[in-house]
From TrEMBL:
InterPro entries: Homeodomain-like_sf (IPR009057), HTH_TetR (IPR001647), Tet_transcr_reg_TetR-rel_C_sf (IPR036271), YxaF_TetR_C (IPR054156). This is HTH tetR-type domain-containing protein. Keywords: DNA-binding, Transcription, Transcription regulation. The keyword DNA-binding applies. Signal peptide: none annotated.
Amino acid sequence: MVEKLTSAQKRQKLARAAMNVIWRDGYHAATIQTVAKEAGLPAGGVFYRFPKKHDLAQAAMETMEGEFTPLLATIAPGGTAQKRVSVFFDYLDAMTPRRVVLGCPVAKLMLDIPADDGFDATRKTGQAIFTSLINWLADNFTQDGISDDTAQKTSRRIILRWQGAIVLAHAMNDRTILDDEIADLRQTAERMLGSEPN
């Protein structure tokens, strides 16, 4: 017997489906029907829970935030800053194959949504994801005695270079672009933290 989903479970399933469809197809090409099919639920359920298309974009971005941001707290919580940052780069390595094929889901959605006010919440959520990444790295650098200003600037540069490498690797369909950049960024972070590169 198939277990019946609660309303909250259906909403979560649809939000995840919206994230997958928008990441794969882009916001403009995503349809209610495609999201429903991806979720394995009737299209009426999408309309009921997400009456406007920008509601789907917000749900997709919130799903990304709900998956990625808490992940940072689980990275070697009892370890040193060097260990946490090393594991962080391991995660970036693990994400590489999908980033080469599809690009960054957060950046893709932020670049794809219209500029009107109806998408302000989605933009703010996307900005919060990038801010949490930058601040997490900066916190680890400052815990190792690096000044706040240097830690923030370096962390912004690391995320900037990683995102730029994703764009180029995706556009060129060349994984080595992203692999090389992540390896160089890892070495930069290790030098800052006073540990030897791998």
